[in-house]
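Researcher: Structure prediction, please.
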Amino acid sequence: MLMNLIAFFEGESETPTNNDGWIMWVIAGVLIVAMVLMMILPQRKQKKRQQEMMSKLGVGSIVTTIGGIVGEVVELDDKHIWLVTGSGENKCSMQFLRQAIHSIEPAPGSPEAVAEQEAKSEADEVDEIK
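Model: Predicted structure follows.
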């Protein structure tokens, strides 16, 4: 159909013919496959990132929730986490679903935190040189 329209506008044919109807189905199929791939692949990538982030979750990790609450993880189970927020005598313990986690910073002193700090200091040194 698309080829017929192109030929029609170029003046090769007075009326579009239905001889190449299979081309329309091929183009429609390719467009549908491309649309499905563009929808599914980013979702899989995001789910993988979320699973990697949750694997870093542990007691002592600093967590930011989707509501913007920042706290330290004090307890975990399969569905919930317990955070302690505040400072001094104003500490408060809260329970959240695991799905409410937006970002995780590794626990201070953990190997991940040490590696992250070293990478950050190296990046700062490179910035100072430039």
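Model: Residues 81 and 96 are 5 Å apart (CA to CA).
Researcher: Thanks, that helps.
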